[in-house]
Amino acid sequence: MSILITNIKQLLQVHESNITIVKGDDMKKLPVLENAYVYIEHDTIIEYGDMKDCEGIDAETTIDASGKLVLPSWCDSHTHVVYAGDRTSEFVDRINGLSYAEIANNGGGILNSAKLLQNTSEEDLYNQSIKRLDELIKMGTGAVEIKTGYGLTVEAELKMLRVIKRIKQDSLAKIIPTLLAAHAIPEEFRLKKQDYIKLITEELIPKAVELNIAHYIDVFCEEGYFDIKDTESILKAGAQYNLRPKIHVNQFNILGGVALGAKHNALSVDHLEELNEDDVEALKHSETIPVALPGCSYFLNIPYTPARQLIDAGLPLAIATDYNPGSAPSGNMNFVVSAACVKLKMTPEEAINAATINGAYAMGISNMYGSITRGKKANLIITKPLNHYSEIPYAFAHNPVEQVIINGQLL
Ligand code: NIG
Ligand code: FE
After folding, report:
1. How far is CA 24 from CA 259, 284, 313, in A?
2. Which residue range(s) make up the domain with 35?
3. Are 259 and 302 within one domain?
4. Model confidence over 348-358: pLDDT tens digits?
5. Is pLDDT at 346 greater than 90 in this prediction?
6. Could you tell me if 150 and 251 lie in one domain?
7. What ligand 1 atom has the least distance to the C-alpha of 113?
8. From ligand 1's centre to the CA of 110, what distance in Å?
9. Is residue 222 within 8 Å of residue 255, measured between CB atoms?
10. Do 393 and 401 form a contact (C-beta atoms < 8 A)?
């Protein structure tokens, strides 16, 4: 299988040598080749360059991309795309004035989704989830992190992991599974949270590791969920099995989760709608990437992550959808890129860096994904005719994607 894409108006995120992350001021740079070609064999980017140098390349399929842009597929490093049903009634409750916390305290929220998932067959859960994933792929996403966390029993968390495993086998997208058993305190443990933590650390983590699916461990470090001490003990238990942390922190309250994440060498700390100077300082001395989730801020009407504060301090930043039924029921990375510009005050270059190479870093796969580099995986977006890449965030809620190539296959 070989594909040659010719006459590309702008080929974005081109890197001769393999990069794995961009930070601070470098995020303002987006390397672009005008009037370019890309040549793919099987699942790999083999060559790219100026159109005048593509003579003599013979491919099984040639795509004329005149007037169009080509860029690496979006890398969505934070999703909960495996879930059952929806939470539209809570959405209406919020419109009518209830807060996310009030809904959760009344037995709604994550516990509501957990109940639904527990009562959904594995087959049905798979079907619902793969359908969502197929939609994401059509919108340009080529790599996706997927969390558990709507099971909240050993049995249901393992069911989620098996569904994620099946998706990983069946989907062309790169799937990165994360164990988020510490997503909420189940009703039956309401007055004995420590028992649930014990269940996670002593039973669930070892069983999950046995299935050999999860790459990372996540905790919802938040008031009313898991505090700093809880979070640390879960991260320590995960570390014994080489599960590196990727954690939910600072969504509503600052508990110190950012520094804790940095201390435990978290790959990412996600949300950060709330942020203080200590958090920024802690990240400066770490390998941990902050991740902003503008779709969640939009949907819950909460503050947007102060991206400028992070980037202007020289830090990297990734953006992701947080696709889930409660706080962000959309997996559209095109919208996230636009919201990053409009609401987080990121430039188009910063937003595209955050959604490609840095998204890949936040999943631990940026050596193979997230840029147009020889030898990297052929996950590409071919846009509709556009004059400039800034039109991607500019025309918000528009779908700029015309075709996608994923794992070397044209969809
Ligand atoms: O990332 N904050 C925790 N988890 C999800 C929301 C989960 C839910 O409401 O179902 C999030 O926003
Ligand atoms: Fe989340």
Report:
1. 19, 11, 7
2. 2-72+368-410
3. yes
4. 999 999 999 99
5. yes
6. yes
7. 10
8. 7
9. yes
10. no
Q: What CA–CA distance (Å, rounded) separates 215 from 293?
A: 21
Q: Can you give the three-state secondary structure of 125-163, one letter per residue?
A: HHHHHHHHHHHHHHCCEEEEEEECCCCCCHHHHHHHHHH
pLDDT at 107: 83
Q: Can you read off the two tokens belonging to residue 40?
A: 């793919």
Q: How many domains does the chain have?
A: 2
Q: Whose CA is nearest to atom 5 of ligand 1?
A: 327
Q: What pairing do the DSSP bridges indicate for beta strands 68-72 and 61-64?
A: unpaired
Neighbours of ion ligand 2 (CB under 5 A): 322
Residue linked to tokens 């008031």: 223
Judgement on whether residues 347 and 379 belong to the same structural domain of the protein: no
Same domain, 97 and 59: no
- Which numbered ligand comes closest to the C-alpha of 257? 1
CATH of the domain at 338: 3.20.20.140
pLDDT digits (tens, 9 = 90+) for 238-297: 999 999 999 999 999 999 999 999 999 999 999 999 999 999 999 999 999 999 999 999
**Amino acid symbol at 307:** A
| CA-only gyration radius of the chain, Å | 21
Which residues surround ligand 1 with Cβ inside 6 Å? Answer: 109-110, 113, 220, 248, 251, 296, 322, 324-327
Helix (H) / strand (E) element for 279: namely helix 277-284
Determine the atom of ligand 1 nearest the C-alpha atom of 326.
Answer: 9
Q: Report the run of H or E that residue 260 belongs to, with start and end.
A: helix 257-263
